[in-house]
Amino acid sequence: MTTPFLHIHGIRKVFGPVVATEHVDLTIGEGEFMTFLGPSGSGKSTTLYILAGFQDPTAGDILLRGRSILSTPSHKRNIGMVFQRYTLFPHLSVGENVAFPLRIRRMGQADIAEKVQRALKLVRLDGFEDRMPAKMSGGQQQRVALARALVYDPPVLLMDEPLSALDKKLREEIQHEIRRIHQETGVTILYVTHDQEEALRLSDRIAIFNQGKIEQVGTGPELYAHPATHFVAEFIGDSAFLSGTLTDITDNRAGLSFADGSIVRNIPLHAKGQVGKRAELMLRPERIALSAVKGPECATLPVTIENLTFLGNATTVTARTGWGETLTVRLNFGHPMTDRISRGDTLYVTWEPDAAHAFVKA
Ligand SMILES: Nc1ncnc2c1ncn2[C@@H]1O[C@H](COP(=O)(O)OP(=O)(O)O)[C@@H](O)[C@H]1O
Ligand SMILES: [Mg+2]
User: Which of 28, 107, 129, 292 is the most buried (most CB within 10 A)?
Assistant: First the structure.
């Protein structure tokens, strides 16, 4: 087995009675863009700070090219970091801010000048050397912070919600820049966000954090199509969860019955289930169809149409099941069904065999 580039190994961190992270295990390839995605308080920043050396783990290890870096002090780890809030030195010009890590490393003046130029060019701020941070927009300041983090060519760059203080348009613009910089430099990036869209846009792979643990690691499409847990299914994309009871289980596929007597079958079942236990059927709005006729026996449910909402590129249809739960169906603009349905209609939802998932209730 080859040694992974970066190996986060069994990291646990407690703050008094608070368990911030537990069993965090992850390997990251060289040049990979890995994102930690999860709600606030799920342990993303703590994991990043342990990598940066701002905090020591309670247990576990961090291996870079097979060697532990835990005993290396933060400033010698050669890991770049960009934070959520602008952390530029307000009394230093842009050029001096970017030069700072090189001055600490006692680099010669000519080399510093050249590297600062290159870093500013990378973030498209050449010509801004003499500007003071206070005279720049939030987006520009984050670019300077990025240039400062990259100026000494660190093999790893950590970014902790670097765009969350910016408005949507600027955020998308800098996301684009971050992708370009990742491609141009080949630097390995560990990126923290609570925004699923940002994670999907940027990442090679995403680690989903929940309550201090990683629930699943995968590419965006993998997590979307094959969520391993209820939490992941809920966190990535939109979905409805319908509560039923497991009626049969064969080879990780299950049948479920519902309160109105409806039965579905052949649903991929995640986690161990037992016949008779409660479980939830997950359906994504764009992966189900509405039909006037009953679908195949195992993949259909009768519903009543409650509402239609026109969204421009699509119409979302709210449908109520016979036992009172609702789900949403998304019909893209121009879908022939859009004009054929109205409130109060009784129809059927249907789906392809792998478009539904079942999760056992915790
Ligand atoms: N310095 C600290 N002292 C005490 N508790 C902390 C400290 N840092 C983080 N925590 C706690 O650890 C948990 C994880 O926090 P954090 O890693 O910041 O989450 P995230 O970045 O995902 O929002 C939270 O419950 C948080 O309150
Ligand atoms: Mg955080």
Answer: 28
Neighbours of 114 (CB within 10 A): 12
What DSSP state is assigned to residue 97?
A: H
Quote the pLDDT of residue 126: 93
| pLDDT of 362 | 67
Round to whole Å and give the CA distance between 37 and 20. 15
Query: Structural domains in the chain?
Result: 6-232 (3.40.50.300), 238-290+300-360 (2.40.50.140)
Nearest to 6 by CA among 22, 30, 25, 24: 30
Q: Taking Cα atoms as reference points, which of 36, 33, 19, 28 lies closest to residue 63?
A: 28
Spatial CA neighbour of 349 closest among 213, 240, 275? 240
Q: Give CA torsion, residues 72, 77, 81, 85, to 10 deg.
A: 30
Ligand minimally distant from the alpha carbon of residue 39: 1
Tell whether ligand 1 has an atom less than 6 A from the beta carbon of residue 53.
Answer: no
At residue 86, the pLDDT reads 72
Ligand 1: does its nearest atom lie under 6 Å from the Cβ of 44? yes
Average pLDDT over residues 159-168: 92
Q: How far is CA 284 from CA 237, 281, 333, 340, 355, in A?
A: 8, 10, 17, 22, 8
pLDDT in tens, 269-285: 987 889 999 999 999 99
Distance 330 CA to ligand 2 centre (A): 33
pTM over 0.85: yes
Q: Which helix (H) or strand (E) holds 236?
A: none
CA–CA dist 355, 250 (Å, integer): 18
46 ligand 1 Cβ < 6 A = yes
Minimal CA–CA distance to 126: which of 138, 134, 135, 117?
117
